[in-house]
Specification:
The structure holds 3 protein chains of 3 kinds.
Chain A: H1 26-37, E1 41-45, E2 52-53, E3 69-73, E4 76-85, E5 98-105, E6 112-116, E7 129-134, E8 147-152, H2 160-163
Antiparallel strand pairs in A: 1-2, 1-3, 4-5, 4-7, 5-6, 7-8
Chain B: E1 5-12, H1 24-39, E2 48-52, H2 65-68, E3 79-82, H3 88-101, E4 107-115, H4 121-125, H5 138-154, H6 160-172, H7 187-192, E5 195-198, E6 200-201, E7 210-219, E8 230-239, H8 253-266, H9 271-274, E9 277-280, H10 287-294, H11 303-309, H12 325-328, H13 332-348, E10 361-368, E11 373-380
Parallel strand pairs in B: 2-3, 2-4, 9-10
Antiparallel strand pairs in B: 1-7, 1-8, 4-7, 5-6, 8-11, 10-11
Helix pairs in contact in B: 3-13, 10-11
Chain C: E1 11-18, H1 30-43, E2 54-58, H2 61-64, H3 69-73, E3 85-88, H4 92-104, E4 110-118, H5 124-127, H6 144-157, H7 163-176, H8 191-194, E5 199-201, E6 204-205, E7 214-223, H9 224-229, E8 236-244, H10 258-267, E9 276-278, H11 284-294, E10 301-302, H12 317-330, E11 336-343, E12 349-356
Parallel strand pairs in C: 2-3, 2-4, 9-10, 9-11
Antiparallel strand pairs in C: 1-7, 1-8, 4-7, 5-6, 8-12, 11-12
Classes of the chains: A mainly beta, B alpha/beta, C alpha/beta.
């Protein structure tokens, strides 16, 4: 057996680390998730500035006060902006390329990130009107997995002026 | 009343995708030793150490200042760890500078680093949260939609991003420490590179680097070193919420407020005229025109015109990122500090081949998170 | 002016608030847990976020298991219009130090400091292993309880303490915690009874270990006119310092804490009589080491709040020591107090803050 101590520098040392964590959505996000379980988008309104957040993490980010009033939002929204993801990464579960868009639901004051399908990646546009496609009722869970994706709903594109403040 | 503070020593590693010749401790020590040598000091001359880096999960080492204390000569001294997302390299330097301007210490060593190859940063940024759609493909996936929004808002032609990508990589050829050295870089090469996050191509994005940066900061009565000091003329930090109704992600208020603050301290009324150069955190090519506007180097909507006209090129009237910038080296936690460090090198006249002729006053900027955290400083060759 | 000749600008602990310390808060997320604490720390003195010129927080991503946990926590404050703000990946006591440094310059007069963390989300004992040298130690997964037990054993072998001393400290802490409505572990139980506990890792029995705690805390610092405007009896920070030791446990005398002693010297602990000390010693035996390093005599009341053996919210437990010490002075129960915070395995890094009333 060769003397392995003279075989040159050790440059790599693999140290697998596995840690498990509980995740606490919190009071406000739980209401959002319970909404998803029923096939609905539930937002919350800030009592101070009146803006509607979806999902609310429990506070109004600008006022620092709890959001408490539930607001049922539309199933339909506008793509404010987007990118087409073409990069593979660990943990990815969607086939590339896919459209990752900021969707501003009607009635909400913030957009959130959503997957757009049923349209070729090169045909997505800013301002496109889209609707949520939900999983079958029997498969609804308190999770964003309840929303399969968004798809164009055929409406005329929203005017840039109507969403430019949400960019 | 705040005491004067100056940069008297700088050091940085050769940035590479994988520095497997050194441990994390070896990496930070390499930069720190250079900075000490530049300042003509030894470890025992240092009063305190301030270290910064991006999320600990990038290397899997929790609160690494604890492990790194002996490697940085911090035993028996105050040691401090800053984390403000991507702006951290800048804010770390500012925390260190305040230890001097407050009169508490005379000489402070500040260090920032990332050893991305020790773990998987892309994974660390995309940890699946149980209730979020697993869409985010690293930082590029976050910023690409905002870049598209900027293009729409400003009407900028799509080749502007490629121009920045080429300019900064050409600058990097003058910087021996830069990670990317691409001698054949041109518009076609960028255009031919893979589209990762449409509209962002591979060569319009920063690399993933291992690297560290270090500076020795000093009070006025403790100046030393082989080059004249870079005096700090202003420093500022600003934060705004990550996501809120009506947030302008293209031209964030926190960035505007931060520059207004630092300009007021340094007596800057016309940044394009008064600064000789700037090092600005541009991890994706389009952030140059966006930050030109946010930092007030031009009117709103005109940033891309400065880039197009060559104003920010090495031979332009206001060179941006003469070092090659974040597009050429991105040891995340250190990237912000490198901006601060590079402008100090410029006004000290020690930038070698990428020295901007006669640079006397310069701006360093770092931003982080989803463009909600900003850190800036102004350094000059003259005492403020 | 040299640093040594510097005149310290008086800065006061104007307000302190902490959450209920609990074993597991699985109803609220970080923002929801923090919001009432922020509201209380402002409400105590009738101010709003607009009255502070700087915000600094302390937390660690490894408690929640995801990057940038401090980013969303900021939504509990509402930093709009944009604020001067910073974060340390350290206990909130160090965030307080950063704010205190900034206040020294005189440009701003008030700052908000907060910290948060839920230790219950993962296996804390495993998580803290990642603080070790990532190449030579962490791969062996030495857990923090075992490392602390090594230290306790060294203390016993050096003849500096006995297991009965550890039990006495735990007994006192739990009894004192009965008068602390925010404490997690409060009970009147004698050292003799505690000594019947099983060993977790010998020589540490269950009572010598800190509880696992979810919690948050906040302090408002004020200087100049604001300090007097916001308090009839300001509690002043008269000394503040922190020091680091080597990471290599084999190179340290685990039975002493030279970094605490140095910080105490720099903070001027010995320049007056100490009435109360709030010591951040998560493991019972560590209180003995820190008290000795601080130079405290038997007359000093130690951890009247119950200390970290009654509630140990990681990242906040140090900041809470400073808040609790300030409250003792504000309530007139003490004139001069010392607060201590620690970080790293076996008391590697230590911070000392001296507080005085008028």
């Amino acid at each position: 057996m060769a003397d392995e101590t003279t075989a040159g520098p050790v440059t790599t040392l693999a140290t697998p680390i596995r840690l498990d964590f509980d995740f606490t959505p919190g009071v406000a996000q739980s209401r959002f998730l319970r909404g998803l379980e029923q096939g609905k988008f539930m937002g919350q309104r800030c009592p101070s500035c009146g803006k509607v957040y979806v999902p609310s993490r429990g506070s109004c980010p600008t006022d620092g006060v709890p959001t408490t009033e539930d607001v049922l939002l539309s199933n339909v929204g506008t793509v404010t902006t987007y990118c087409v993801v073409n990069v593979p990464f660990a943990g990815q579960s969607i086939e590339i390329p896919y459209i990752c868009a900021q969707v501003l639901l009607d009635g909400a004051n913030v957009s959130f990130m959503g997957l757009i399908q049923e349209i070729p990646a090169d045909q997505i546009r800013m301002g496109m009107r889209v609707e949520a496609v939900w999983v079958d009722e029997s498969e609804l869970t308190p999770s964003l997995a309840s929303v399969r994706y968004f798809r164009p709903n055929g409406e005329t594109d929203a005017d840039y002026e109507t969403y430019k403040e949400y960019l | 009343m705040a005491e004067r503070c100056a940069v008297i020593g700088v050091g940085q590693t050769h940035h590479k995708s994988k520095r497997d010749d050194v441990s994390i401790a070896g990496l930070v020590r390499e930069a720190a030793k250079m900075a000490l040598a530049d300042a003509d000091l030894t470890w025992s001359d240092i009063d305190a150490v301030v270290i910064g880096k991006a999320p600990d999960m990038f290397e899997g080492n929790m609160m690494p200042e604890i492990y790194l204390a002996p490697a940085l000569g911090a035993v028996g001294k105050p040691m401090f760890r800053v984390h403000t997302a991507g702006s951290v390299g800048g804010s770390t330097a500012l925390v260190a500078a305040h230890l001097i301007s407050s009169g508490i210490h005379k000489r402070v060593l500040t260090v920032a680093y990332e050893k991305q190859s020790d773990s998987d940063a892309m994974w660390a940024l995309s940890v699946p949260q149980p209730f979020a759609a697993p869409l985010l493909a690293g930082a590029g996936g976050y910023f690409a939609p905002h870049i598209r929004a900027y293009m729409r808002r400003s009407g900028a032609p799509e080749y502007i991003g490629r121009m920045v990508a080429v300019k900064d990589r050409k600058n990097a050829m003058r910087n021996p420490y830069a990670h990317l050295h691409l001698p054949d870089i041109d518009m076609k090469m960028v255009e031919d590179s893979m589209m990762l996050w449409d509209p962002l191509r591979y060569l319009e994005a920063c690399p993933s680097s291992d690297g560290a940066a270090a500076m020795v900061l000093s009070s006025e009565d403790a100046i030393s070193g082989h080059y004249p000091p870079a005096w700090i003329h202003g420093m500022a930090m600003r934060s705004e919420p990550t996501m809120f109704a009506g947030r302008d992600q293209i031209n964030p208020q926190a960035g505007r407020d931060c520059s207004a603050d630092v300009y007021a301290q340094a007596g800057i009324t016309n940044p394009r005229e008064q600064f000789d150069c700037a090092e600005v955190y541009v991890p994706f090519s389009w952030y140059e025109p966006m930050w030109l506007e946010n930092l007030g180097f031009c009117d709103l909507g005109d940033g891309w015109k400065l880039t197009e006209a060559g104003a920010t090129a090495f031979d332009g009237d206001i060179p941006w990122n003469a070092s090659g910038g974040v597009l050429s080296s991105n040891p995340i936690g250190a990237s912000g500090m490198l901006r601060f460090l590079e402008v100090a090198m410029q006004v000290r006249g020690q930038a070698g081949e990428h020295q901007v002729d006669g640079a006397k006053l310069a701006l360093g900027q770092a931003y982080g998170g989803g463009s909600q955290f900003f850190a800036m400083w102004v350094v000059g060759s003259e005492k403020p | 002016m040299s640093a040594a000749e510097r005149t310290v600008r008086p800065v006061s602990i104007a307000s302190f608030a902490q959450s209920q310390n609990v074993r597991k808060d699985d109803e609220r997320n970080e923002v929801e847990g923090l919001m009432p604490v922020i509201a209380e720390v402002f409400g105590n003195i009738g101010i709003t976020k607009d009255d502070v010129g700087f915000i600094c927080s302390g937390s660690t991503d490894y408690l929640i298991g995801g990057p940038f946990s401090f980013v969303m926590a900021l939504d509990a404050v509402g930093v709009w219009p944009p604020k001067r703000e910073s974060h340390v990946e350290m206990d909130g006591a160090w965030a307080l130090y950063e704010a205190w440094v900034l206040l020294q310059e005189g440009e701003i007069d008030a700052a908000l400091v907060y910290s948060f963390g839920r230790s219950s989300l993962g296996d804390l004992n495993e998580i803290l292993t990642l603080q070790m040298d990532p190449y030579y130690e962490a791969p062996l997964w030495p857990d923090i309880v075992s490392l602390s037990a090594l230290q306790a054993r060294a203390l016993i072998d050096a003849g500096k303490a006995t297991e009965a001393d550890f039990a006495a400290i735990a007994s006192r802490s739990r009894r004192d915690a009965l008068s602390n409505p925010k404490a997690q572990v409060a009970k009147d139980v004698s050292p003799e009874v505690l000594l019947q506990d099983e060993y977790v890792v010998a020589p540490l029995r269950r009572h010598a270990l800190p509880p696992i705690t979810d919690g948050a805390a906040a302090i408002v610092l004020a200087a100049g006119d604001k300090a007097r405007e916001w308090s009839d009896r300001p509690v002043w920070i008269t000394g503040f310092d922190h020091r680091m030791e080597t990471h290599s446990l084999g190179a340290r005398d685990l039975t002493s804490s030279p970094s605490t002693a140095k910080a105490a010297e720099m903070a001027g602990v010995a320049s007056g009589k100490v009435d109360v000390a709030e010591i951040h010693a998560p493991f019972a035996h560590q209180e003995i080491i820190v008290a000795e390093a601080l130079g405290l005599d038997d007359s000093v009341v130690i951890n009247p709040s119950g200390g970290p053996l009654a509630a140990n919210p990681l990242m906040s437990a140090g900041l809470i020591r400073i808040g609790e010490a300030a409250e003792r002075i504000r309530s007139g129960k003490a004139d001069r107090a010392v607060a201590h915070a620690t970080s790293g395995p076996c008391l590697q890094q230590n911070l000392v803050c001296v507080l005085e009333g008028e």
